[in-house]
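User: Here's a structure from my thesis project, written as structure tokens. My advisor, Dr. K., wants to see whether a designed sequence matches the one we expressed. Can you design one independently, without my sequence as a hint?
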């Protein structure tokens, strides 16, 4: 994967993302890109930035449209990518498995910004499950992606975050997206060294956060049998999805 790789930043970056969590991470990379236009600024970690989104309108595609002078927009899966065009990929809340053929086009691989302390809460809904479980500490993980499975690649960097009291999923998403934005910039700044100390995940200690559906009876509030603490966690974790469902 790392043959013919540059030894350090600034990097040519292809970003994959769609939603509210993705957007601050893209904005942080965009700020790094704009530094190259400022005199006497030599600390940028991004020399080129292009963006991949899904076809339906979303937070990321709207930001790209507003900044079309600086950003090239690709719509998944119709990508015109050739080996060597980019040094590294960055992915955040994209929801699609990336095929090995595409991963191998990036000399430095593709880095996933995941809002949990992997291997805890692998999957597409780590933030609600963090609150449901009563976790006191969570965080953001930057990990190399692998084909065929989500969130299993080696860990490049991590940062821990203590949950604020009574935090909701939306509030925690905002907090972790900002932490992720800071962490990806610092990771790109020191990527050539972090690659040497990346850590494989312990599959035996992994926990999972599969997609939550409003019709899943296990996530409804059982007013007769659940404690106040359990109901509070469900309300804060799921209020935008299933808080109105209950068992009689």
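Assistant: Designed independently from the structure alone:
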């Amino acid at each position: 994967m790392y043959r013919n790789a540059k030894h350090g930043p600034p990097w040519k970056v292809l970003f994959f993302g769609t939603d509210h969590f993705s957007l601050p991470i893209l904005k942080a990379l965009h700020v790094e890109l704009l530094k190259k236009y400022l005199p006497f600024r030599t600390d940028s970690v991004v020399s080129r930035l292009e963006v991949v989104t899904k076809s339906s309108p979303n937070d990321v595609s709207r930001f790209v449209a507003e900044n079309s002078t600086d950003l090239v927009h690709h719509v998944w899966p119709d990508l015109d990518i050739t080996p060597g065009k980019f040094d590294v990929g960055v992915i955040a809340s994209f929801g699609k498995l990336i095929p090995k053929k595409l991963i191998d086009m990036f000399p430095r691989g593709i880095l996933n910004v995941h809002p949990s302390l992997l291997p805890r809460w692998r999957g597409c809904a780590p933030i609600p499950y963090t609150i449901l479980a009563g976790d006191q500490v969570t965080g953001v993980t930057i990990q190399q992606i692998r084909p065929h499975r989500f969130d299993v690649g080696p860990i490049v960097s991590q940062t821990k975050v203590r949950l604020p009291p009574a935090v909701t999923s939306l509030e925690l998403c905002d907090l972790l997206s900002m932490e992720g934005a800071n962490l990806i910039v610092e990771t790109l700044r020191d990527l050539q060294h972090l690659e040497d100390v990346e850590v494989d995940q312990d599959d035996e200690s992994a926990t999972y956060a599969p997609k939550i559906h409003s019709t899943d009876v296990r996530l409804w509030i059982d007013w007769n049998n659940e404690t106040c603490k359990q109901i509070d966690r469900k309300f804060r974790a799921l209020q935008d999805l299933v808080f109105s469902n209950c068992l009689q």
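When you compare it with your expressed construct, this may help: The beta strands are 11-17, 46-53, 72-75, 88-92, 110-114, 137-144, 155-162, 221-222, 246-247.
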